[in-house]
Write a structure and sequence with these properties.
This protein is mostly beta strands and 97 residues long. It has one domain. The protein has strands spanning 26-29, 35-37, 40-43, 51-61, 78-83, 89-94. It is globular and about 50 Å long.
Length: 97
C-alpha cells in the first residue's frame, strides 16, 4: 500500500449504517481451524485476539445458499464475526475462498 502514491488498497469488507448502540462485526482471518479447548471452541485469528465461540453459534455463508459449519473454517478463511459483551462470537459469516 505505501509503495503507491496516493496509497491504494482493496477492501475486503466495508461495514456501514451501524447505529451508535450496536457493536459492529469484526473482520477476521482464521490462522487455523477451530480448536476444541477445555473452555469451548476457539477461533485463532491472524493479528487479532483469539475468540471463544458461544454455544450454538450461528454460521452462515456470504451471498450463497450453501450449508456451512464450523468445520469449513481452516487456515486463511475470511469471515465477519459478531461478538457479545464478553467478546464471544455469537454469529459468523464465512466468505468464499
Amino acid at each position: 500500500m505505501t509503495l503507491s502514491l496516493p496509497p491504494q488498497v482493496t477492501a475486503y469488507a466495508v461495514i456501514v449504517h451501524i447505529s451508535e448502540d450496536f457493536k459492529a462485526p469484526v473482520f477476521v482471518i482464521a490462522a487455523d481451524a477451530v480448536l476444541d479447548t477445555d473452555n469451548g471452541k476457539l477461533l485463532d485469528a491472524y493479528g487479532e485476539q483469539d475468540y471463544l465461540l458461544a454455544d450454538g453459534v450461528e454460521v452462515q455463508p456470504y451471498l450463497t445458499r450453501n450449508i456451512v459449519t464450523l468445520d469449513d473454517i481452516r487456515k486463511g478463511t475470511r469471515c465477519l464475526a459478531w461478538t457479545d459483551e464478553y467478546d464471544m462470537i455469537t454469529k459468523l459469516m464465512l466468505f468464499p475462498d
